[in-house]
Amino acid sequence: MSNSLLPIRHSLTLERRKFLTTCALATLATQITPVKAISPNTIIKPPRLQPNDTVGLIAPAGIFEPKYIEIAKGYLTALGLKTKLGNHILDRYGYLAGKDSDRAEDVNAMFADNSVKAILAMRGGWGCNRILPLLNYSLIRSHPKILMGYSDITSLLLAINARSRIITFHGPVATSTWTPFMLDYLKRILFNAEAVTLKNNNNVSEGQVQTIVSGKAKGKLVGGNLSVLSAMVGSPYLPAWQQKILFVEDTNEDVYRIDRMLTQLKNAGVLNRISGFIFGQCTDCSMGDEPSLTLMQVLQDHILPLKIPAWYGSMIGHIQDKFILPIGVDVEIDADAGTISFLEAAVI
What we know:
This protein is an alpha/beta fold. It has helices at about 5-30, 65-80, 100-110, 130, 135-140, 155-165, 180-190, 225-230, 255-265, 295-305; strands spanning about 55-60, 80-85, 115-120, 145-150, 170, 195-200, 210-215, 215-225, 245-250, 275-285, 310, 325, 330-335, 340.
């Protein structure tokens, strides 16, 4: 063959290879179903509870009396559920239910365990903030499931919602008294996947709704214990606050301390971003022995200038009859009626 023809032959060979490669890719594309990736900003709803599901019991914070494990098993068995204990649930380390690494290990292990469909904290106390850096948020996001508790468990609920982008649940711990009021909401929200409206019962002994600013507002629900929440300010474990409905509660705090914590939220730029505010119950809070403002005066000082719908007295906090509040769900609040209406189910 003439040397003058070699470049032409080489060019034809390259074109033929490109043509065959294009055909092969086109054929392969028709055989593969595209997988839609989940955006890291998408909030994931955990699967609903069903009879015979297993609930993992963990102690991520303070110590408790072992007898409460059997009491918790009784409540869950009555709901048709099984239980599984965390490996370190009975550990003790001073006032903490075990070393930080072990308590975090139980959280991670329960999320990784495919046989466990929900996770319930035994009690609050103190300690969850200490284990936040030790949680595997990517693992948790890849195994979404119901996580519930309140008080110090606020740290876990907010951090996992913010970092793993999963709906979490502010509700009873295993050592709570599981009243018919609370069980009704638990079944409707966690089993039946209902978009409920939370409204105080008629016999609430802690007090009636006191409107601070009238009106309605929509946004994603977020919040928890005020002391715990304010202690998390400045950390990477809190959600963005724009257009959120913030709920808080507390117990055994003097009014000036509530003032101090709300001032911290204000100075940190939290309060001026939210679209609605709910203070649940401030159980056993007092004005102390010195001259004091009332709690309502403090709330009005901080909330009235925001001109957002707000009220005090929702059934949230250290009380027997308490709401179950899904953190990250879209809701509409009515500050005059004192209601929280879900705009979507919290589980799938």
